[in-house]
Amino acid sequence: MEEKVGFRRAFSASIVLGLYSGFMLAVAIAMSFGNSGLKLAGFLWALTIVICALFLTPLLAISRKRGIPNIDEHVTKFRESLDEFNEGVGGWRAYSHIRGQGMGVSISLSNASNPLIIIERAIQIMGKCKLVFRFSKSDTSLRDRTLLILNEKVGASRIQRRTKSLTIVPEVKIDRSTIITRVMMLCPPLMVAGSMGFYSVNPDQPILAFIGATAGAVLGMLVVTNQGR
What's the maximum distance between 2 C-alpha atoms anywhere in the chain? Predict the structure, then answer.
């Protein structure tokens, strides 16, 4: 069962999002309407905080809690799964060639007689762990062959390329809390920019500020929900 964020953390996050979003809204109102809009800007800022606290808190509270993966467990899993490919002293061995690296697992392919088999098996068991393949300086062709395999198995968007290594990042699943956070962080500045831009065309038409804000919000939603990100 997934561990939930909880009410306290969700409430704190909602307040922060409300402060940020409300500030952006207040800036747009103040710059569009000048001194006459300061009271309205302050009221809307406070209102945004209250609304976020009331409506976002229950949504965020039931979201899954993100944590730091236990790299030692991942290293052990890889070593046990790839132990059958051990080649003895002087060759490739799971214990010496598989190590933890930052937030993921590093597999050195140096001295491996069958590196492509190791790569295939490692991809199958990687799960949510970041996986780094390291290559020997003396075998530059292996990196190119590995890249072709990774492009076919996991897709180019999940591969980070380095001269001596290739890294596979876990597939990112965007849940409800991620979408909410991205919307609240991205849409307000776009709404401010749109509101100010449209309003500057004809200051005698306040409705343009609303239209510009709406356009900014729509653009932000399109960016957040873009499946090609």
Answer: 82
Residue with tokens 């905080």: 49
Integer-rounded Cα Rg, in Å, for the chain is 25
pLDDT in tens, 26-51: 877 777 666 777 788 888 888 888 98
* Verdict on whether the full-model pTM lies above 0.90: no
Q: Structure tokens of 142? A: 């292996």
Q: Answer for the pair 208, 201: CB distance below 8 angstroms, yes or no.
A: yes
Other beta carbons within 10 Å of 9: 15
Cα distance between residue 140 and residue 106, in whole Å: 18
Q: Is residue 130 within a helix (H) or strand (E), and if so which, with residue range?
A: strand 130-134
**Do the beta carbons of residue 150 and residue 166 sit within 8 Å?**
yes
Name every residue whose Cβ is closer than 8 Å to that of residue 200 and which is 6 or more positions away in sequence. none
Q: Does residue 50 sit in helix, strand or coil?
A: helix
Residue that has been written with the tokens 């809690």 in this structure: 65
Give the residue among 173, 71, 78 at the shortest CA–CA distance from 124: 78
Q: For residue 109, what are the CA distances in angstroms to 53, 66, 142, 148, 164?
A: 51, 31, 9, 16, 11
Do residues 167 and 130 make contact, with C-beta atoms less than 8 angstroms apart?
Answer: yes
pLDDT single digits (tens) 213-222: 888 888 888 8
The CB-side HSE value for 190 (13 A sphere, CA atoms) comes to 17
